[in-house]
Amino acid sequence: MGSMILDDRDQRFVLNEMLEIEKLCESKPFADFSGDMFEMILNEAKKFAENRVFPTLVEGDRVGCRLENGQVHVPQCFAGPYKMFCEGGWNVMSFSPEDGGQGLPMVMRTAAHEWFGHNFSFMSYPGTGEGAAHLIAVYGTEAQKRKYMDKMVTGEWGGTMVLTEPGAGSDVGNLSTKAIRQPDGTFRLQGSKIFITAGDHDLVENIIHPVLARIEGDPAGTKGISIFLVPKYRVNEDGSLGERNDFEIAKIEEKLGIHGSSTCAMNFGDNGACYAELLGEERQGMKIMFQMMNEARLGVGLQGVSAAAIAYRHAVRYARDRLQGSSLMDFKNPEAPRVPIIQHADVRRMLLWMKANTESMRAMAYFSAYCFDKERMAKSDEDREKWIGYAEVLTPIVKAYCSDVAFRVTELAMQVYGGYGYCSEYPVEQFMRDEKIASIYEGANGIQAMDLVGRKLGMKKGGYFMSLLGEMNTAIAAYKDDPAVAGFAAEMQGAVNTLGEAAMYFAKCGKEGNFFVPLAHAYPFLMMMGKVVSGWLLFWGAGVASRKLDALCQAQGVDRADPAAWGKLLKQNEDAAFYAGKISGAKFFMKNVLPEVDAAVKAIKTGDLSVVEIAEESFGS
Ligand SMILES: Cc1cc2nc3c(=O)[nH]c(=O)nc-3n(C[C@H](O)[C@H](O)[C@H](O)COP(=O)(O)OP(=O)(O)OC[C@H]3O[C@@H](n4cnc5c(N)ncnc54)[C@H](O)[C@@H]3O)c2cc1C
What we know:
57% of the residues lie in helices and 10% in strands. The chain has helices at 8-18, 35-53, 57-63, 79-87, 106-116, 120-139, 142-153, 285-321, 345-377, 381-417, 419-422, 428-436, 445-456, 463-479, 483-511, 516-520, 522-556, 563-572, 574-593, 595-605, 610-613, and strands at residues 66-68, 71-73, 157-159, 178-181, 187-197, 206-215, 225-231, 233-235, 241-244, 247-252, 263-268, 275-278. With 621 residues, the chain is α+β, with helices and mostly antiparallel strands. The strands form three sheets. A five-stranded mixed β-barrel has the order 4-5-12-7-6. α8 (285-321) runs antiparallel to α12 (428-436) and α9 (345-377) crosses α19. The chain binds flavin-adenine dinucleotide (FAD). The site of flavin-adenine dinucleotide (FAD) has 19 residues, from β5 and α13. The site of flavin-adenine dinucleotide has 19 residues, from β5 and α13.
């Protein structure tokens, strides 16, 4: 029986059979690794997830966080796993060895973390620590690295990302927290922040907060923002902990989900003594924070993959066990035996939708991480530029598409469970509650869409986008004549062409100064493009699977065109059933989901501006 957390077979398929990650080990910087080591790491990740992370999911939700005497307490059940997580180095897998990490490829970190992401409350603590430590690794001085980063890498100290204020959510440039320069070169902060994940907790002895603020006298807007390191406890010269810094946790939020993750309102400098050190250069705060935000956006997309994966696994298991109704063949016979609901066409529709979408999102998240590894390995500027371009274009899609589609996967899982799914006896309702936040934080999905349409599509005069379309066309050309996928190659090619047309249409609107059209249609464009990217990855996977099936059939002397022999093979050979499932999932997606691309582009190309034109009063009071 497979894992209830995710489908390891599909994970290995994407890593080994599509991306062939073992080839990353052929040259620097990954030459010290091997495919066997990758396999061992993934097995350990699975063990840790099943034995330590998953068992705290429900309890973390039930117990939640509490604020007492200015200190946040998180579910006790997180303490042991947190310590083991950091001791195992799971928090710094892709950090360079000089910074205390293991130097593993990003794609490996992503795959390992897919095992943990279903418990996002738990993961919010090592996750924010990892991101903040990486900021210091890249932008900190040597002194800051030794003073702060070293203990964050070991997980002894935590970290956060502190941007949001009551008046500055999506509009970060509107922040009002100020930094007051001191004669010794340090600063004192004053201001209030809200919604800060892991803003305080009791898993660590100190927390280092990277905080966005404006130095007095600096210009308004994002250009005037700097970033500061603000320790919970000041750190003495010898590394020991000094006095408590001047900020307080004003409250923690009550939320729909991720109850085990503390979401804090923080008041800085009520006594004028909130110590802060500049990180990097003055007025470079947004650029620096963007490193963490981009990593976090991919992380939030991966949260979606994990949520979808666990929801799908539970739904399939339930659908196999739950008896209800009779077979269609026996529908007139009230005495007919009850059948598992997985036999009903409508339940299969839901499961196949969940399967295809979960697998395409997994491939999307892994491919995006793999781009960073390929960029590091690139031997020419042109090659490097290609991989940077893919990552740039895909980041907002991974964040927004995966979070929104994953939410729908979790919701469908609830539907498969029927009334039991709505009740808290089963964990599916928690999967849905926990996943909803992913479309809001790290830049709400509408903001991601504007980033894609307003910035990413036009980068290098559209070169990055065109290059990604080229990658899709290459996959289609490679497999379109394979008999198993030829039946849906035309749909895939059509969707890629349609996506290209929609982008050209936006470019034309831009040239004509008609900027409202791309803005008003940005989100539908992002979701449409997410479907095309998904289709491409599923098509590629189906092509690979078909060739593997050919080899398998040849080895076993089975004719794929002979229904009896083929049916027997699928029953007896897990690999054959898996590969056939990849082809079925791709076909389903091409025939049932990709047509939505045409509809979306048709709507986009009307250039309709209803959303802009409707008078505000007409929305009703
Ligand atoms: C549980 C949780 C954890 C969080 N963790 C952190 C954290 O660790 N650190 C941190 O700094 N923040 C954190 N946040 C804050 C989060 O990033 C913000 O909530 C998010 O960026 C949206 O800001 P907002 O809530 O002010 O919504 P608003 O900015 O008010 O947005 C409301 C709606 O309007 C839309 N909108 C806003 N402006 C525009 C525009 N110009 N064009 C089009 N649409 C627009 C948005 O897309 C959204 O749908 C967290 C929030 C929550 C709920």
